[in-house]
Design goal:
This protein has about 120 residues and is mostly helical. Helix content is about 80%, strand content about 0%. It has helices at about 5-30, 40-60, 65-85, 95-115. The radius of gyration is 15 Å and the shape is elongated.
Length: about 120
Amino acid sequence: MKKISTSFYDILGISTATICLVHCLIFPLLTILPLGLSHNPFIDLLFASIGLFAILKIIKKSALLVSSILVVSMALIWISVLADLFFEIHLDLIYFGGIGMVIGHLINYRLHKKQNH
């Protein structure tokens, strides 16, 4: 069986974090339109769970800077998601966490690519 590399998890993390960030930025604008859309915090929970899975696989083998960025970003996302889920409070921390996740995964992907070539 082929071992899945860290770059796969970086690509998973980059794409998930980017989709999550776009969702968080665009969806509030769509709720203004009379389309019958409402916010579902379980979608945020799904994105946060996928992101947590990806960073748990990555932080074991990544540099301290990358691990720090990813852990802090994930903490911001989870605080925001759980505040929305339990207290129905929307925190803007999720935006900073999403941006941090994309940056952390991009840095790790580039470092990983540089080491293998």
